[in-house]
Amino acid sequence: MKVLVIGGGAREHALCRSLSLDPDVTALYCAPGNAGIAEVAELHAVDALDGTAVAALATELGAELVIVGPEAPLVAGVADAVRAAGIPCFGPSGEAAQLEGSKAFAKDVMAGAGVPTARSYVCATPEEVEEALDAFGAPYVVKDDGLAAGKGVVVTDDLDAARAHANACDRVVIEEFLDGPEVSLFAITDGTTVVPLQPAQDFKRALDGDEGPNTGGMGAYSPLPWADPKLVEEVMETVLQPTVDELRRRGTPFSGLLYAGLAITSRGVRVIEFNARFGDPETQVVLARLKTPLAGVLLASANGTLADLEPLRWSEKASVTVVVASHNYPDTPRTGDPITGLDDVAAEDAPNAYVLHAGTRHEGGAVVSAGGRVLSVTAIGSDLTEARERAYTAVARIGLEGAQHRTDIAAKAAAEA
Question: What global pTM score does this model have?
């Protein structure tokens, strides 16, 4: 099978790594890719937001499956253009991707499906913002209605900060704060059948102890030894299947990866948000544990044949990902700094630990930083303690001036396991 992956972040590197190990994949392409993906896939230049260009590239390459990784191309309808060219595509239509593209749309779908979520208001004026902030009180949860690369959410006790974020957006969703730990659960669906993956937990705040500003994610781990063994079953019954059924009922069937961000509250499971694609950095730890070859599963989603698949097989091992970020991330990150030690990780730590590239590029024979989140160091171990040790050992080999990373990824879960 010839597979084309669209995107160029750590999520796409994780996908390409898994696909490169799949015996059914005969050729692997990525557009535009990054310095790390170039080691496992043939890179091609393309405007990922241009559906016509992506479909033309897929046709030229003879791709038998296209995987659209990032949210912006999905919301822009790139998957629709690929399917219109007669090529199977993993990823929802532009209309269905509004589940991530619009927080207000997602809330409306959840209401129709009876999915448990936070009470909320959709606000488009300063007056509506003031009323909503007053109604819920602190902590204030303010979400940009549109796409914001994982950084459109502010959770704060500071009323002025909440107000400022709300008024800087065209439209916002303001909702009640949900207590309890957060969990990410992915599911692959063809619009009817829903196949859940293994849950993970990520770390959104920039600094240890969940301090500092929100980021796109600074690390993740799986499995969750503290979680209820019936969590996946419960989320399937109350969240994932009802949402897929509701979208199909509306005439906007969702095919691809449905990502539920959940809060395990004192009142039960509540949905924080939906995403319409694999999440970063959770993808890195979830795919590290998947034993079933990936390409066939994604093709079954694209072709509507998920019900015919054997149950997914999973490793009992644990996985941990630590994100190495640029100086000044998540504000304006510094780029162009050389990255050293990548060969050392490959020589000393593989296969138990490896580096997935996010914001990197080749420059004059060297790999340099090219974004805020630069690398994801992923490790596997017999338990979370061993996976953590292996991940941080590998992180220590990497040199990047001004780099930052959290030192507490999975620490609490490992200590309590």
Answer: 0.92
